[in-house]
Amino acid sequence: MSTYSIQGQPLEATVVGCTKLKDTEWISRQDPYVCLEYGSTKFRTTTCTDGGRNPTFQQKFVFSLIEGLREINVTVWNSNTVTYDDFIGTGKIQLAKVLSEGYDDSSWSLQTKTGRHAGEVRLILHFANAKRPSSSFAPSAPPFQAPAPPQVPVYATMPPTHPTAYAHPTPTPYASYQSPYPSYPPSSVAYQTSMYSSPYPSGYPPASYPPPPSAYPPNPYPPHPQASPVYPPSPYHGVYPPPPY
Q1: Which ranges of 70-148 does DSSP label H, i.e. alpha helix?
Q2: CA quadruple 207, 213, 216, 218: dihedral positive or negative?
Q3: Pseudo-torsion of CA 152, 156, 160, 161, nearest 10°?
């Protein structure tokens, strides 16, 4: 079985910047820079002039890994031109994640000499030869299988196609039934009309009222004078011509 070793393998470290640094200047803005130390290897970023509390660097460095050494020391300073540089804060960058996963993009806390919080520094670490875990995993649960359909019990002998025939009961003769009620509709002979007297006269339908005239159309009223049998009519009543006197 071969032993995995990181000795001499390259590790890339990019200093992105710092946030919320302790301010060491009273009048002007401070000029921070970052120092990295791994074993005997040391790197320093350029000074971010007037970077103040949130400087940006974006500088990349390459370290040769040392077996058994799994952290990088980081220190942030404020550059001065007349006096000594001012110490801002220090911290330790752990390499366990980048060595196992190949990549780490985290911010690391900085502390003063008295242990107070002095801000954060952000680095991007990249390790190309990381020994990543195998992507093939055993399934945690067996694959899903559809339940088997229910088993229908098999008969020893096939059931009969038709049910057993039963003897039909013999109809019992019944005596003739005499109904106490007359048949319907009732017979005209058996129906007694004398029990019911009709409210109408013997002749039906009744005569219309007023009775219709004997002739149609009716005679005009008043009646015409009696027509004379002779023409022209005589001024005298009687025979025409009148007899001589």
Answers
A1: 96-101
A2: negative
A3: 50
What is the C-alpha to C-alpha distance for residues 22 and 36, in angstroms, rounded to an integer? 19
The residues with which 71 forms a beta bridge, in sequence order, are 94
Question: CA-CA distance, 175 to 180, in Å (whole number)?
Answer: 15
- DSSP 8-class letter at 121: E
Please state, in angstroms and rounded to a whole number, the distance separating the CA atoms of residues 182 and 197: 22
How far apart are alpha carbons 102 and 130 in whole angstroms? Answer: 5
**Do the beta carbons of residue 230 and residue 238 sit within 8 Å?**
no
DSSP 229: S
Cα 177 to Cα 219: distance, rounded to the nearest angstrom: 72
What is the model's pTM? 0.53
pLDDT above 90: residue 194: no
| Pairing label, strands 56-64, 117-126 | unpaired
pLDDT tens digit string along 217-237?
A: 656 656 555 555 555 555 555
CA distance 89 to 109: 9
Task: Name the one residue in this structure whose structure tokens are 């002007």.
Answer: 28
Q: Are the C-beta atoms of 78 and 86 separated by less than 8 Å? A: yes
- Taking alpha carbons only, the member of 23, 15, 85 closest to residue 51 is 23
DSSP three-state, residue 101? helix
